[in-house]
Write a structure and sequence with these properties.
- The chain is 19% helix and 36% strand.
- The protein contains four helices and nine strands, in the order E-E-E-H-E-E-E-E-E-H-H-E-H.
- A six-stranded antiparallel beta sheet has the order 1-2-3-9-8-5.
- The two termini are 14 Å apart.
- 34% of the residues are buried.
Length: 126
């Protein structure tokens, strides 16, 4: 299982890459393997200001549909539109081309609550 050291993680299996006041968010390798083949991604929150843990969209796989939760509060600024035509990119490259949204962080201190790669590994192994 791939858990990059340079990212932060949530208990809901999202990864977060923070660059200044912008965060890129996707689902982890563990999450995509548990879901199976991703067939659809819906994000209808672009331009909206959402609180931490609010739902920003959903991801549909052959097995199930799962909500996607904001790991930090802020404004959703961008959706990876390439996922509309190729949602399985999440399965193939969850930490690269399979990113889901970008957001402008409203409270950087919330990042302190995210898990490190080591903490996330313990979380999924538990």
């Amino acid at each position: 299982m791939n858990i990059p050291e340079n990212l932060k993680y949530t208990k809901d299996h999202e990864w977060v890459k923070i660059e200044g006041d912008t965060a890129t968010i996707g689902i982890t390798d563990f999450a995509q393997s548990e879901l199976g083949d991703v067939v659809f991604v819906e994000v209808d929150a672009v331009g909206e200001e959402l609180d931490k843990e609010e739902t920003f969209g959903s991801i549909e796989a052959v097995k199930t549909v799962s909500d996607l939760f904001m790991p930090l509060g802020g404004e959703v600024t961008e959706f990876n539109e390439a996922l509309e035509d190729a949602p399985d990119t999440i399965n193939k490259d969850p930490y690269g081309k399979g990113w889901i949204i970008k957001m402008k962080i409203s409270d950087a201190s919330e990042a302190d609550d995210l898990m490190s790669a080591e903490d996330y590994k313990e979380h999924v192994d538990a």
